[in-house]
Write a structure and sequence with these properties.
Blueprint: H1 2-25, H2 40-45
Length: about 55
């Protein structure tokens, strides 16, 4: 169970670092799959989302 929590924490850290990188590059808020803007409500739920609702798995 502890390993699972550690793994999830590491995954979350990577997701945050990637989001910050997109902010620096000016790409934050745009879907990485189709390039369309990600809905603000979706980013309010989780600011690390990389894809819009249509492209999300």
């Amino acid at each position: 169970m502890a390993k699972n929590l550690t793994r999830r924490g590491q995954h979350r850290k990577v997701a945050i670092e990637m989001a910050l990188s997109r902010v620096r590059d000016g790409d934050y808020g745009y879907c990485t799959a189709c390039g369309e803007p990600i809905a603000v409500r979706r980013l309010e739920i989780d600011p690390t989302f990389e894809q819009c609702v249509r492209c999300a798995p």
